[in-house]
């Protein structure tokens, strides 16, 4: 009976479709999501180190950045690569920062066509992954040891700057005698923000890139004699409040969460 059923099949070929449809392949022009984003249309007048620091400051809000690559060669001018640890970070950055006005030019962002190692080879800075992992582990251990030493000395590593511990000004003891017993009241809401615990290499342009994302931004003021602090002005106190809530604790570097309060007038 089984043999009769087999013979009733009009197509002796066990595969009814001799040319099956192949599994879908990506569009040749479409780059699959990966951890590296490629950015072009960048302002070519910006110095290389300044550009890399500003890109790191702007994109670190989306996740851990492994490296920012930009080169001096004519072929690579106006371009950069930002390598994230997670694909989701790269995807969020691409989606939210597409067309963002960066140094007065809208950024054009897409996923990188090549792995970051290939880009590093072109720059002569390629490190094999296993060796890079060992270097990262070594650096992490060194930082952990430094944090442990600071903790043992009674310092808060979260506020460790270039000159040791830098706690928020509001927490510093007042050295003026009897007035020390009276804590100073925080400033009432106003249009100017006071930002502390910035890394000492921060520049006005780096901060502008962060704070100009929010409506009403006017300007950044830094005091050259006092690195690590800045004043950010908005159109009104509602606009400054939105920016403060959005960027409170934002880390320009891993060791520097921003502390933002209203400025005293």
Strand order of the largest sheet: 2-3-1-6
Give the biggest sheet.
4 strands, antiparallel
Radius of gyration: 27 Å
- Give start-end ranges of low-pLDDT stretches: 1-8, 21-26, 153-167, 169-181
The multimeric state of the shown protein is single chain
The amount of beta strand, in percent, is: 15-25%
Sequence of secondary-structure elements:
HEHEEHEEEHHEEEHEEHE
Calculate the terminal CA-CA distance, rounded to whole Å.
98 Å
**Structural class by SSE content:** alpha+beta
Q: Quick check: average pLDDT?
A: 75
How many helices?
Answer: 7
What helical percentage do the residues reach?
Answer: 25-40%
**How many E strands?**
12
Query: Which outline best applies?
Result: globular
């Amino acid at each position: 009976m089984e043999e009769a059923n087999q013979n009733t099949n009009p197509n002796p070929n066990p595969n009814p479709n001799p040319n099956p449809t192949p599994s879908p392949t990506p569009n040749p022009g479409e780059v699959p999501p990966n951890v590296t984003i490629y950015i072009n249309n960048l302002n070519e007048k910006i110095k290389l180190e300044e550009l890399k620091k500003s890109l790191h400051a702007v994109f670190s809000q989306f996740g851990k950045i492994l490296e920012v690559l930009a080169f001096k060669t004519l072929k690579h001018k106006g371009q950069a690569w930002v390598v994230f640890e997670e694909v989701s970070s790269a995807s969020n950055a691409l989606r939210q920062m597409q067309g963002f006005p960066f140094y007065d030019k809208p950024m054009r962002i897409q996923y990188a066509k090549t792995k970051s190692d290939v880009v590093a080879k072109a720059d002569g800075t390629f490190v094999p992954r296993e060796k890079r992992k060992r270097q990262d582990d070594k650096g992490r251990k060194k930082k952990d040891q430094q944090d442990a030493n600071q903790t043992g000395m009674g310092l808060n590593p979260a506020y460790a700057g270039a000159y040791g511990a830098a706690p928020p000004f509001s927490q510093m003891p007042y050295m003026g005698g009897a007035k020390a017993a009276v804590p100073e009241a925080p400033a009432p809401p106003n249009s100017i923000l006071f930002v502390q615990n910035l890394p000492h290499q921060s520049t006005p342009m780096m901060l502008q890139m962060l704070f100009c994302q929010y409506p009403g931004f006017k300007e950044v003021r830094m005091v050259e004699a006092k690195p690590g602090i800045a004043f950010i002005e908005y159109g009104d106190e509602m606009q400054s409040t939105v920016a403060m809530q959005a960027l409170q604790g934002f880390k320009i570097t891993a060791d520097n969460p921003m502390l933002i309060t209203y400025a005293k007038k």
